[in-house]
Amino acid sequence: DAGVIQSPRHEVTEMGQEVTLRCKPISGHNSLFWYRQTMMRGLELLIYFNNNVPIDDSGMPEDRFSAKMPNASFSTLKIQPSEPRDSAVYFCASSIDLNTEAFFGQGTRLTVV
Amino acid sequence: GIQVEQSPPDLILQEGANSTLRCNFSDSVNNLQWFHQNPWGQLINLFYIPSGTKQNGRLSATTVATERYSLLYISSSQTTDSGVYFCAVVRSNSGYALNFGKGTSLLVTP
Predict the structure, then answer these.
(1) Rounded distance between C-alpha atoms, residue B25 and residue B12, angstroms
(2) Cα–Cα distance between B50 and B32 in angstroms, integer?
(3) CA-based end-to-end distance of chain B
(4) A45 touches chain B (CB under 8 A)
(5) Could you read off the pLDDT of B45-76 as tens digits, one per residue?
(6) Nearest CB partner across the interface for B100, out of A31, A42, A56
């Protein structure tokens, strides 16, 4: 298996623009997680899904952030409008079920200028 | 929320040396993972170890859930072991999010 696949690997955008990050979980995994890594806050959860249904979005910073999982093999994280403080590495992870071993993608490094 | 404390925060070793990294957590957990973040930023799974002891080559880990700590042992360290080691836990009866420690930054010199 190719593992969790994220795209793009790097994204540079101007403040105010919409940004969409994409994730393909490992085939057969029913749970998908979005995390964000910054120097100040470390790695923190944004949202997770189980069987394509959002379970906990309490980590989503504000209404500018939204996430969807239209099917078992694809999820998006959208930021609209983007701000410089959104600059971070965004990781997607998947697991067979909730509370089983999670595997991370290579991350998307987002820079908002 | 749960507190996850890792020690030491930084570690410099000479190639061939052994080391022990520690992870303390403040509440009961039902999932614990160790990761290695390499210099390219990739998070690599090392162990899924809610309890007990596991070994994988030069690495081994032990989690004593009742005493709320886990240890990661690195033996005969190599320069490729450099990077940041993270401990992450899922708090019992509190959702399924991994809560990460701040990591141990390891540098192995030739």
Answers:
(1) 24
(2) 5
(3) 40
(4) yes
(5) 999 999 999 999 999 999 999 999 999 999 99
(6) A42
